[in-house]
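Morning!

This is the sequence you dropped in the shared folder:
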Amino acid sequence: MGKRLRAQRIGDGSPTYRAKSWRRLGKIELPSPQKTGEAVVVDILHDRGRNAPVAMIRCEDGQEHLMLAPEGLKVGDRIMIGTAGEAKPGNVLTLSEIPEGTPVFNIETKPGDGGKLVRAAGSYAVVIGHEGDRVSVQLPSGEIKEMDPRCRATVGVVAGGGRLEKPLVKAGKRHHIMIAKGKHYPRTRAVAMNVVDHPFGGGRGKNAGRPKTVARGAPPGQKVGLIAARRTGKR
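The structure's back. Tokens below.
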């Protein structure tokens, strides 16, 4: 009898596949919209399981807050939050206040949600236009998204870029990275499994032996491969 599929085990939410949230520094997001004014960078921290450094800032009311650090930010720098100011790296402004052509990151999808888009190390989006009550932002994927001008973002590029340029060299390095992110490692290819362990298992060579497209409503034991694919093949 074969074991349950990886997709089923991940969905079950067992400790093996659960991110170790207690190892993290805390929630990394933009300060509350009610907090405006100047803030000072107290420290630059490393957050395990996160590929970008984190800045600890102290607001005017004395409270400290964690947010993603842009390139060039250092301890002692002062940044502006929520008030109309220049588009300087580290400043948190609404999209309506950010000039066209400015790189931004940690963008809110709804006003006040703390930032959801463009958070990986070295990534950035670009404000490309202001049209009426919408702001056009080009994401790292190239997609152009129309957003609410009240949504906030941090000016600059996420620090920590270039992390993929240095090769890992050995499996142990990859192992520690995956464990910090709460991901299972190593990952066996489905076509390398036995026929009882996966729908793509068995047969000769690297061939699934069946179509890899599967319906959105397929049962858990069958829902592997290209789920609800809009199209297949080369463009």
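Headline: Residues 195 and 201 are 4 Å apart (CA to CA).

More detail when I'm at my desk.
O.
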